[in-house]
């Protein structure tokens, strides 16, 4: 098993493991980890073909997000099942043999819970989660079940070879607004040091209670809901062949930092 630390800030805080595909044969629940298939850097460079099935992914976690083969929709893993939000706004539950080039999941066990009374903007929600997070938690898994308004969501069209870089794909992404919805907002907060491996900061997807609305969240207001936070102290990353871990340069960091602002998965 290869092992790398992407940044000194991880030492004593976040254990980042680079795994071969066979390295996924472990027990993440016992280790309290987030497990990731692929890297953001590979996805940004057009790596849209996956080698991890959803069956393998769901064995490693019951809550998470990402994308699916050929960027065919935003992946939402919720209560051990997987859905995709397509560029046309449609939601479909995915078969277990579906492949993913990029996804992160965890076996979610709430350590912190709180009832939220809104309205809370997305920025206010981030601040509240930051306040409640256990000290020294480098990665947070977050779930909010409740009532939401002013949803701004996005997805991208399924891609075909030859694949364009992600920045070109998302220039033609689909964005839509939903006035209000009941459902679940879920995802992760990653530290800056994971740039190139993951999206630094908050990465959130939404799925409505009736399974008709979903996607990557660009903006949202929490009217009321139950917040649950699960800190993870390890991130295990399954690397595709030929992909390594490294620290991105300034230009790459700037592009990665723009992903939550409407420019990527």
From TrEMBL:
<comment type="similarity">
    <text>Belongs to the alpha-acetolactate decarboxylase family.</text>
</comment>
<keyword id="KW-0005">Acetoin biosynthesis</keyword>
<comment type="pathway">
    <text>Polyol metabolism; (R,R)-butane-2,3-diol biosynthesis; (R,R)-butane-2,3-diol from pyruvate: step 2/3.</text>
</comment>
<keyword id="KW-0210">Decarboxylase</keyword>
<dbReference type="Pfam" id="PF03306">
    <property type="entry name" value="AAL_decarboxy"/>
</dbReference>
<dbReference type="InterPro" id="IPR005128">
    <property type="entry name" value="Acetolactate_a_deCO2ase"/>
</dbReference>
<dbReference type="GO" id="GO:0047605">
    <property type="term" value="F:acetolactate decarboxylase activity"/>
</dbReference>
<keyword id="KW-0456">Lyase</keyword>
<protein>
    <recommendedName>
        <fullName>Alpha-acetolactate decarboxylase</fullName>
        <ecNumber>4.1.1.5</ecNumber>
    </recommendedName>
</protein>
<dbReference type="GO" id="GO:0045151">
    <property type="term" value="P:acetoin biosynthetic process"/>
</dbReference>
